[in-house]
């Protein structure tokens, strides 16, 4: 259940052919150990200091902001990044649940970006459909959320299974989460590139049709002119 493609053109085609996300797999030693190692987190996240932070909320990147500027490659802190589009109904249905995550995991960071405005990032991380959620450690993508059931509980389970960090039990989706910061109402927009392409193609077909000699015989008056 996803909207796609997130981008268009040759870049998106290359992303579909060559996804660059590196999957996180447990080391052989961990697989051979007992129950304790099975419960060990796959990603050892450095939890941020929350002292002085009064409001834990999601940050949405605008078109001029680069994701890499918000990820520290020299750090082991973790960030959950959502690739979405405002016209995708699956992104809209996920929005209130993702908006509530910063309160459930205050020691982690949460970012969201419009994949249609950051096509280069979509290509880089193999994002060909939205919504797409990636867990970063520093600037490195470590895991992808692959469940079609995108709720607060499944997102909590994903983060816990990957990082071992437990969510706050008193956090639930509220009316404020439905309002933002990530929009839960679909945005209707016009794809100007697609519209221009359709108009150009229609105009070219009409021009070629009129110029074709065989079609001119079907136009009233053209047959008499040809005989003369």
**Biggest beta sheet summary:** 5 strands, mixed
Molecular shape? elongated
CATH superfamily of one domain: Glutaredoxin
Catalogue the unreliable spans.
Answer: 7-37
Number of helices: 10
Structural class: alpha/beta
Here the CATH topology of one domain equals Glutaredoxin
Q: What share of the residues does DSSP label as strand, in percent?
A: 5-15%
**Overall pLDDT:** 78
Spell the H/E element sequence.
HHHEEHEHEEHHHHH
What's the CATH architecture name of one domain? 3-Layer(aba) Sandwich
Q: Supply the CATH class of one domain.
A: Alpha Beta
- From the alpha carbons, calculate the radius of gyration and give it in angstroms: 25 Å
Strand order in the largest sheet = 1-3-2-4-5
How would you describe this structure to a colleague?
The chain has 228 residues and is α/β, with parallel strands linked by helices. It has a domain at 59-177: Glutaredoxin, CATH 3.40.30. Helix content is 38%, strand content 12%. The protein is built from ten helices and five strands; from the N terminus they run H-H-H-E-E-H-E-H-E-E-H-H-H-H-H. It has helices spanning 10-17, 28-32, 35-38, 89-104, 119-124, 152-163, 175-179, 192-211, 213-216, 222-227, and strands spanning 59-61, 78-84, 109-114, 132-137, 140-145. A five-stranded mixed sheet has the order 1-3-2-4-5, with helices on one face. A hairpin with a 2-residue loop joins strand 4 (132-137) and strand 5 (140-145). It is elongated. It starts with 9 loop residues before the first helix and ends with a helix.
């Amino acid at each position: 259940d996803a909207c796609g493609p997130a981008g268009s053109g040759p870049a998106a085609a290359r992303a579909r052919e060559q996804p660059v996300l590196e999957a996180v797999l447990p080391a052989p030693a961990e697989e051979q150990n007992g129950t304790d190692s099975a419960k060990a987190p796959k990603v050892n996240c450095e939890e941020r200091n929350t002292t002085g932070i009064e409001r834990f909320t999601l940050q949405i990147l605008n078109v001029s902001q680069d994701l890499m500027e918000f990820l520290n490659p020299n750090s082991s802190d973790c960030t959950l990044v959502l690739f979405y589009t405002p016209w995708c109904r699956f992104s809209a249905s996920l929005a209130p649940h993702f908006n509530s995550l910063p309160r459930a995991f205050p020691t982690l960071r949460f970012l969201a970006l419009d994949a249609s405005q950051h096509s280069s990032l979509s290509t880089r991380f193999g994002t060909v459909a939205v919504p797409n959620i990636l867990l970063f450690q520093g600037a490195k993508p470590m895991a992808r959320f692959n469940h079609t059931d995108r709720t607060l509980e499944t997102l909590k389970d994903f983060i816990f299974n990957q990082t071992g960090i437990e969510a706050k039990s008193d956090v639930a989706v509220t009316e404020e989460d439905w309002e933002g910061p990530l929009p839960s109402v679909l945005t209707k927009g016009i794809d100007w590139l697609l519209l221009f392409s359709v108009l150009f193609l229609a105009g070219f077909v009409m021009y070629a049709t009129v110029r074709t000699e065989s079609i001119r015989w079907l136009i009233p008056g053209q047959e008499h002119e040809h005989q003369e």
